[in-house]
Design goal:
With 515 residues, the chain is mainly beta. Helices cover 14% and strands 36% of the residues. It has 2 domains: 246 residues, Jelly Rolls; 236 residues, Jelly Rolls, CATH 2.60.120.10. It contains 7 helices and 31 strands. It is elongated and about 90 Å long.
């Protein structure tokens, strides 16, 4: 397809429709993309691929990016990712995309129909208008025509003055089909369907050598104006080393979702900075364990001067552990509490929040703070005395008492969702450890110093290992210095035996003894 697509693209300024996604995939994508709580785009409305892993995954799908590479070469950046939605009757006037209007070319846009896509709702294009040498807005300005006033015949006539073979086309596109078009192409959209909002995914790429700017959207006429800040761009192929653009890292990989047996999560610090996103979570794992039906773990980076949310409560119990920097945890009586309890935590310090406790975190320091969170929910405990809010400045330098394996208890007690929560700091001497075994409780291990081997992996500072109850796990210090790590044990709620169960067990025991 690459050669044919490139030849068509070069001749007409567009190629397609090309099927890239199935209708079922489109429905799945759309459901996910329209869920509330998705990450906000970075810096402007086309910055979704810098913060949202789903946008990034769609933009780097080989079915999309390989044709783009055949058109732009090996070094490609993604500078725009957004949803284009049009209600019935809605028009997007004839235009050239301002960001990609450079007469030298080097820009490719990919328009993919996701929902209610048909010839009546897709793009209208002026084929070969990429050869005219100027954006449509300039052609309109030179003739005294304002945005939205030109009809299709006007636009086609202007293009044919420079490119006699220009033609008006409206491809027959359906959900999952893509149109690849040159960033200089003149186009518009008009949803003429009687009903149904049309939704398309717009992905915009450039050869990495090209400079991309954010237009001033208060001025859509010629001459164009641009904002001083640069858009965030993500490298999707090759490299971008010439400094022409503000290259940002891709969004973090999605957390591991599914039953939690034995899990190792490496957490190399520093994690990608927050940039203009003041709070950036990085999911590690989430799913049921042998002890609780929901357990999740993530690491977050919080920018100076920020809090991710006001004091709140949720049905899960929660542990927050500071990995790097200094954080203030706020324990409040209610969301609008003007005098919450404030505790400052440094690396190794942690807080436990029971159900019903209003809480949040704040970064009052001058540099980012990184912290890990464990959250869980399960069957309720019958214990009357339960752990309340716990704040601990964990001592990460436990004394050497001569033992190879030396745990120091920090917290122990029942909670609403656990028979017992226990936390201890352990010092493990070089070459010390214990053989694989299975516990009747879940165990989370967070390394702070040295290194350990467990679950077939080597863990260093800030890495996490989790073992569900019943899973074999051992530990060893392969290094030349002591390893120090924080351990959380999640013990199951013990159910009382019901009257009928006790009666059946008694009858069974009596019958067996009668023989």
């Amino acid at each position: 397809m690459g050669g044919d697509l490139a030849a068509t693209f070069d001749e007409l300024g567009y190629a397609g429709p090309v099927p890239v996604f199935s209708p079922e995939e489109c429905r799945t994508f759309l459901r996910e993309l329209e869920l509330p709580g998705r990450p906000e785009p970075l810096r402007w409305f086309k910055g979704h691929a810098s913060t949202d892993r789903l946008f990034f995954a769609l933009a780097t799908d080989p079915r999309v990016v390989e044709p783009v590479r055949s058109l732009l070469g090996d070094d490609v950046i993604l500078w725009g990712a957004s949803l284009a939605q049009r209600e019935p009757g809605q028009v997007h006037a004839w235009h050239t995309d301002i960001e990609s209007s450079d007469p030298r070319g080097g820009f490719v846009s990919v328009w993919i129909g996701l929902d209610n896509t048909s010839q009546e709702s897709t793009l209208a294009l002026v084929a070969r208008s990429h050869r005219v040498g100027e954006p449509l807005q300039k052609a309109a300005f030179d003739r005294g025509v304002r945005r939205g006033e030109a009809g299709a015949d006007d636009v086609l006539g202007w293009a044919r003055r420079s490119e006699p073979s220009a033609a008006l086309v409206q491809p027959d596109v359906h959900d999952g089909d893509a149109i690849f078009f040159d960033g200089r192409l003149w186009h518009r959209s008009h949803n003429t369907r009687a009903s149904g909002r049309r939704t398309a995914l717009l992905l915009q790429y450039a050869a990495a050598r090209h400079h991309v700017r954010i237009p001033d959207l208060t001025n859509l006429e010629w001459p164009f104006r641009f904002r001083p800040e640069r858009p965030p761009v993500v490298v999707v192929s090759g490299a971008a080393t010439n400094g022409a653009n503000d290259v940002v890292p891709p969004p973090p990989s999605p957390e591991r979702v599914g039953p939690v047996g034995n899990v190792v999560a490496h957490v190399p610090l520093p994690l990608p900075g927050t940039g203009e996103v003041p709070w950036r979570p990085h999911g590690l794992f989430r799913g049921p364990t042998a002890v609780v039906p929901t357990m999740s773990c993530h690491v977050s980076v919080l920018a100076p001067g920020h809090s991710p949310h006001p004091p709140h409560v949720h049905p899960e119990e929660e542990i927050l552990v500071v990995l790097d920097g200094e954080a203030e945890v706020m324990i409040a009586a209610r969301p609008d509490d003007t005098r919450p309890r404030v505790e400052r935590l440094t690396p190794g310090g942690f807080a436990y929040y029971p159900v019903g406790q209003h809480h949040t975190i704040r970064n009052a320091s001058a540099r980012p703070v990184t912290y890990l969170m464990l959250k869980w929910q399960g069957p309720p405990s019958r214990a009357r005395a339960r752990l309340g809010t716990e704040i601990h400045l964990a001592d990460l330098r436990p004394a050497d008492d001569g033992r190879g394996f030396a745990p120091a208890l920090v917290v122990e007690g029942p909670t609403q969702w656990l028979g017992k929560l226990q936390a201890h700091v352990t010092r493990l001497a070089p070459q010390a450890g214990y053989e694989p075994h299975a516990d009747q409780h879940d165990v989370a291990v967070l390394v702070f110093a040295g290194e350990i081997e467990t679950l077939g992996a080597r863990l260093r500072a800030h890495d996490v290992a989790y073992s569900s109850a019943g899973e074999l796990h051992g530990i060893r210090n392969p290094g030349a210095v002591p390893a120090v790590y924080l351990v959380f044990e999640f013990h199951p709620v013990r159910r009382r035996e019901g009257v009928l169960a006790r009666l059946r067990r008694s009858l069974t025991l009596g019958a067996s003894q009668a023989y």
